[in-house]
Specification:
It is a single chain. The strands form five sheets. This protein has a seven-stranded mixed β-sheet, with helices on both faces. Strands 13-14-17-16 form a four-stranded antiparallel β-sheet, with helices on one face. Strands 1-15 form a two-stranded parallel ribbon. By secondary structure, the chain is of the alpha/beta class. The protein folds into two domains: about 35-280, Aspartate Aminotransferase, domain 2, CATH 3.40.640.10; about 285-390, Alpha-Beta Complex (Aspartate Aminotransferase, domain 1), CATH 3.90.1150. About 40% of the residues lie in helices and about 15% in strands. About 50% of the residues are buried. It starts with a helix and ends with a helix. The chain binds D-serine (DSN). D-serine binds near residues 26, 93 and 171. D-serine binds next to loops.
Amino acid sequence: MKDIQIQKLIEKETKRQKSVINLIPSENYVSKDVLTALGSIFDNKYAEGYPNKRYYGGNPFTDELELLCQDRARKTFGLKESEWHVNVQPHSGSPANLAVYVGLVPLGAKIMGMTLTAGGHLTHGQKVSLTGKVWQQVPFEVDPKTEVLDYKMLKVQAVIEKPALIVAGFTAYPRMVDFKKFREVADACGAILMVDMSHVAGLVAGGAYNSPFPYADVVTTTTHKTLRGPRSAIIFSRRDKKIKDKEISVLIDKAIFPGLQGGPHMGQIAGVAVALKEASTAAFKKYAHQVVKNSRALASELEKLGWRIVSGGTDSNLLLVDTWMDGKGLPGKEAEERLEKAGIICNKNTIPGETRSPFDPSGIRLGPAAETTRGKKEKDMKKIGQRINKILRA
Ligand code: DSN
């Protein structure tokens, strides 16, 4: 590379990534093939529009690429082309979620989503996000005692509030989600059911987590977490679902382009296509199951060493550790900083019923997806748990 300044930064970041234990559950290490596709000459091309309906010439191979990526997305999640439409153009997860609301929810209507502190995402209707300014969030929480979802309560709330759309989506919910029960909640109030499976997409692809597809109308996902692709997103929508005689897949496509975005990032789409093929292999299936085994091993070691694990455990790619423990432990921010100094990277996180601030909350969020890519197993998680304990108690 001629640009020495940038080359040096790439080298420094490579060294940093290699030297740390990465426990951020939403990060991963992509393959060389994904990086090659991501940085390919497809990035040079403008392709506004959709395959075979572009606003620029010179698109025979971008058309082929985008259609192949859509096809691979369906194959990876076992979906029929006749039932599911796929949009691979969202630049990332937040614009993907926004596009679904722009397409399907009247301005000012209600979106039911989990609060940030209980484990929802900004784009599930939080006030500080555009999604909470343009639409009105009906916030839901977990059961304060068990810290797991209470579907009966959700149904009661949904019937009273009548949201136009319900988001079953989470960034810090460690347990298995019952998507069938979410379907029942949505049906009870006539809402669209959108599942944001960003965190668990790789686990769903590998058969290590419940699939939302039998129950959802729309499924959004980022591609760079457990799915182990480049930073991007996908929107899946049921072809037979309509709002006032209009197919939701058409409304969502229009919301992405021309509604919210210009030209798709074709290099990203090439990288996503490579990652999707990798995620449909037997090796990836094994990886997905190992991620859950590793999460459980880390949670049980930390619990054994006296730390409170939110909800008592995990069924997924992540666990939440209550480091504050009502003042008996240490704040999440300090825990994150101490761990980083010792070469363990994680993020501070709010916990259900949070009593502190999001900037200095009561816990940390840990997840082994990236370290599992590096070949770590349960015995390694046990050792990492012991190291974490030592650092936090020093
Ligand atoms: N920032 C992502 C996460 O870490 O969960 C969600 O967008």
